[in-house]
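Renewal narrative, Specific Aim 1. Our central claim is that a sequence can be written position by position from structural information alone. The example that follows is taken directly from our test logs and has not been curated for this report. It begins with the structure tokens describing the chain, in the order in which they were read.
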């Protein structure tokens, strides 16, 4: 592989105009597609194999035309202080608003609060439910505008009016923190390379890669039902890995220049060696992201595939566009050890009299491996303690910022009707096989009324055929609480007994029940997914490192870092530690997808650092150094760059903590803290300590396995045949472009 990538790097360097033209054309094509595509909405949940989804499908079949998948909105009214919603003036305003809402072409129905018992007992709060014929993804902007206008007209009349539900799909805002993250990445690159131009190359290529990836996701959003969260996560991951992959190749290029190679030769060698590490690091990320499809949750699958596609683009750009841009840059990219004139250079920097920080740290770890190993493991173990209290759930309007109308509507409904009103349960009774459907409906209603945590149970509403009915149950607790989850399980347990007596099947659905089923499905899929991803990556790393113990150590170190990161997420988002600093306005259960998504993404990123750092150790060992000295050599060449890459990735992920969407905020924090734990504690401390303790055994591989494995030559051993320390005069005379 190293030889092939070496040739690819030299070709891209020589044919840089052609390479640049291809990527600019792809960016333009993706941009045009994104500009002409309809805007993305929130991805709808479809969870095959769950009871909530089965009930939802049954409603579609037995209640045709009911628009079970249609968007909904709750317009909540509150009377001015000292007044009631039943007063003539306020009632007239609400009735006028209901009439105005009914005029929309996409509106299926609008409920009258006064005939539908939608006024609170104290008379201060009322609401109307608006049902649309199409889903939130398909709802036209004119319908959303009409909804907001009707609410504003009621506000002008003196009422407090807020809107909840999925009809208002606001795109998440990331604020200025994302820009700050990129700015920090730029500063780190300048410090690392000592050159503005060299620092700008990884940023430029990463932005181009993310632009192509996110534009493609946006262009396909309508056709593939991709939500706004999908493109945000694709940009988050694509930007982080894009900068890192380019960083490693540019750094290796400067090192090859310092050894006396011509610029074209250095570009080829950097692509052949660091590029090989980029390919395998990218493969581990792609495996982890695409592996999310085994969970069989379409939304999660789409998120993973979209992010994986952006990672693939980042790898391809690093292997082709970076050598091309290095050709354009010419002499403006200095060899390692030199700075640009703008930063006080212009001449070769004197070599330091003492070893660099990476060398000194590695030497210390090699001398004290047991102490470093114990300190790292105990520290991560302590950080992981809160993970034992992990509670999972999915965000609802109650987790929105208080500045949003959805959150204010949620709070008004809780105030007027109780916390459980925001998450009603829909019980579907399928009595098609029952001899007495009406008796079955009545029995189900009576059974539910006798359960704990139930506030209201509406009478059964049968369909035209009379063989299926819906019953609405309002819990006493909020939707994301464990008490509500217990109620869902209690209804399902009671349904088992009812089926035995009446042959009527009882199913529980609704957004709250769907969230509970999603959480359970994700819990059940976590360990199979972990086994699949870690297993495939383990095999891949055996091929890369030609060792059994090094990949095993890499996997165990990852488990430590991901558990510690989950503990930090629980402490902030569930317990409320530092919640004010992180902008967390509402603590509660951790998002159900967080553990499995973190496992996928963090495993891929953790293997990035493992591959980049340990391949330099493997390279030194293969070339004859002793195991302990190979560890020090690997740190001398790789520690500075890996540190810079980790800081950049942490900065990029931290930039998304400022998002207005709780899921993006949580993922940004979780990935940032996970990268910190993995890069600086696992890879920089635990890994060298373990390798120092293992010695030569770290690189042991059974002979039969050694013969069976393909030789991918990540260390660049095959490039020795191309070792020509020449400087092409014509190449050096090419103009250097800024």
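The sequence written for that structure reads:
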């Amino acid at each position: 592989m190293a030889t092939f990538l070496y040739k690819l790097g030299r070709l891209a360097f020589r044919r840089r105009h052609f390479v640049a033209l291809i990527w600019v054309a792809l960016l333009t094509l993706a941009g045009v597609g994104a500009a002409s595509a309809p805007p993305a909405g929130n991805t709808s949940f479809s969870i095959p194999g769950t009871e909530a989804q089965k009930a939802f499908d049954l409603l579609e079949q037995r209640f045709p035309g009911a628009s079970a998948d249609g968007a909904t909105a709750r317009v909540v009214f509150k009377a001015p202080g000292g007044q009631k919603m039943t007063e003539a003036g306020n009632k007239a305003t609400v009735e006028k608003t209901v009439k105005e809402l009914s005029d929309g072409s996409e509106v299926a129905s609008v409920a009258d609060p006064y005939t539908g018992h939608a006024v609170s007992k104290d008379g201060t709060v009322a609401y109307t439910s608006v049902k649309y014929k199409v889903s939130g993804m398909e709802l036209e902007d004119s319908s959303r505008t009409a909804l907001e206008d009707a609410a504003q007209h009621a506000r002008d009349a003196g009422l407090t009016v807020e809107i909840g539900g999925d009809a208002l799909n606001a795109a998440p805002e990331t604020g200025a923190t994302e820009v700050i993250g990129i700015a920090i990445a730029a500063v780190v690159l300048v410090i690392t390379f000592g050159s503005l131009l060299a620092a700008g190359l990884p940023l430029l290529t990463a932005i181009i890669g993310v632009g192509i990836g996110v534009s493609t996701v946006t262009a396909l959003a309508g056709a593939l039902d991709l939500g706004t969260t999908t493109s945000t996560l694709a940009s988050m991951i694509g930007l982080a890995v894009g900068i890192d992959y380019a960083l490693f190749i540019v750094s290796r290029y400067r090192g090859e220049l310092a050894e006396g190679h011509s610029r074209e030769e250095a570009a080829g060698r950097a692509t052949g060696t660091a590029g090989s590490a980029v390919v395998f690091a990218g493969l581990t990320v792609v495996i982890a992201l695409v592996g999310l499809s085994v969970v069989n949750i379409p939304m999660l699958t789409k998120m993973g595939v979209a992010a994986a596609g952006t990672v693939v683009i980042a790898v391809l750009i690093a292997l082709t566009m970076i050598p091309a841009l290095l050709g354009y840059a010419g002499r403006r990219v200095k060899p390692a050890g030199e700075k640009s004139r703008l930063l006080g250079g212009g001449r070769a920097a004197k070599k330091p009299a003492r070893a660099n920080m990476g060398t000194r740290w590695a030497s210390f770890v090699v001398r004290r491996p047991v102490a470093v190993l114990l300190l790292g493991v105990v520290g991560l173990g302590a950080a992981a303690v809160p993970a034992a209290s992990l509670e999972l759930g999915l965000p609802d309007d109650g987790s929105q910022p208080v500045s949003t109308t959805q959150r204010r509507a949620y709070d008004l409904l809780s105030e007027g009707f109780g916390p459980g009103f925001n998450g009603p349960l829909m019980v579907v009774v399928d009595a098609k096989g029952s001899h007495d459907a009406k008796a079955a409906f009545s029995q189900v209603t009576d059974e539910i009324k006798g359960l704990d945590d139930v506030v209201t149970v509406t009478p059964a509403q049968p369909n035209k055929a009379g063989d299926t009915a819906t019953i609405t149950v309002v819990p006493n607790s909020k939707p994301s609480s464990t008490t509500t989850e217990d109620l869902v399980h209690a209804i399902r347990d009671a349904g088992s007994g009812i089926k035995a007596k009446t042959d009527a099947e009882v199913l529980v659905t609704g957004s709250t029940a769907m969230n509970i089923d999603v959480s359970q499905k994700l819990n059940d899929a976590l360990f199979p997914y972990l086994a699949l991803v870690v297993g495939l990556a383990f095999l891949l790393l055996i091929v890369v490192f030609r060792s059994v113990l090094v990949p095993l150590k890499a996997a165990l170190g990852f488990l430590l870092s991901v558990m510690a990161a989950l503990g930090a997420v629980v402490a902030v988002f569930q317990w409320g530690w530092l919640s004010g600093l992180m902008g967390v306005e509402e603590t509660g259960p951790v998002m159900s997808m967080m553990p499995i998504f973190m496992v996928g993404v963090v495993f891929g990123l953790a293997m990035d650092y493992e591959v980049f750092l340990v391949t330099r150790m493997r390279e030194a060992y293969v070339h004859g150094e002793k195991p302990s000295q190979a560890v020090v050599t690997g740190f001398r060449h790789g520690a500075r760059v890996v540190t810079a890459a980790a800081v950049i990735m942490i900065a990029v992920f931290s930039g998304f903590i400022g998002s207005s969407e709780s899921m993006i905020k949580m993922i940004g924090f979780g990935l940032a803290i996970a990268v910190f734990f993995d890069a600086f504690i696992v890879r920089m401390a635990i890994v060298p300590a373990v390798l120092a303790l293992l010695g030569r055994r770290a690189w042991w591989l059974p002979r039969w396995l050694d013969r069976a494995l393909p030789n991918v030559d990540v260390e660049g051993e095959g490039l020795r045949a191309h070792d020509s320390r020449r400087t092409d005069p014509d190449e050096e005379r090419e103009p250097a472009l800024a």
